[in-house]
């Protein structure tokens, strides 16, 4: 997929959409950097001009800051998109609360919280691709994936050890 998104919305024709992609947040810089890279890829592949990243907690920027940056760039509606696999407590409670608090500081700006990634057919391809990459690396025929490259973890074969009960 490339170029611009075919995403449509049921809103006024003059609405300007801003997107906040939010993950949990981590104390590990490398984990937070992955969201930054994803947001860069998302902007490039969709052509959306107003896209900001946010971390729900632990790291900066937070949802309030990212929401405000969308408004500063001209967004009249802000979509908060959880970068989460499952529809758990953060999606049902925490993120909507944080988004509403951010929106309250910008009267007249509409917002909504989108569904998490969830069960999407493309997830099968992604999981299988990661497995294939690891198997190729373990058998000496491949390189590390973008997640494991440059780290000391990932794609290591371990054998179970019996534990006396």
**Termini Cα gap:** 53 Å
Count every helix, treating DSSP H or I runs of 4 or more residues as helices. 4
Name the CATH architecture of the largest domain: 3-Layer(aba) Sandwich
CATH class descriptor of the largest domain:
Alpha Beta
Question: Biggest sheet: strands side by side, in what order?
Answer: 2-1-3-4
Number of domains: 2
Would you report the number of β strands? 4
The SS-based structural class is alpha/beta
GO molecular function, one term: lyase activity
Protein name: Sirohydrochlorin cobaltochelatase
Organism: Micromonas pusilla
Pfam families: CbiX
Structural key phrases:
165 residues, four-stranded parallel sheet, elongated, 4 strands, alpha/beta, 2 domains, single chain, CbiX-like, Rossmann fold
State the gist of this model:
Helices cover 38% and strands 13% of the residues. With 165 residues, it is an alpha/beta fold.
Task: Please provide a written account of the structure.
GO terms for molecular function: lyase activity; metal ion binding. This is Sirohydrochlorin cobaltochelatase. InterPro entries: CbiX-like, Sirohydro_Cobaltochel/CbiX. It holds the Pfam family CbiX. The chain has two domains: 17-113, Rossmann fold (3-Layer(aba) Sandwich); 120-157, no CATH class. 38% of the residues lie in helices and 13% in strands. It contains four helices and four strands. It has helices at residues 29-46, 63-72, 89-104, 121-138; strands at residues 17-23, 51-55, 77-82, 110-113. It has a four-stranded parallel β-sheet, with helices on both faces. Helix 2 crosses helix 3 (89-104). The chain is elongated, with a radius of gyration of 19 Å. It starts with 16 loop residues before the first strand and ends in a 27-residue tail after the last helix. The model is unreliable at 4-10 (pLDDT under 50).
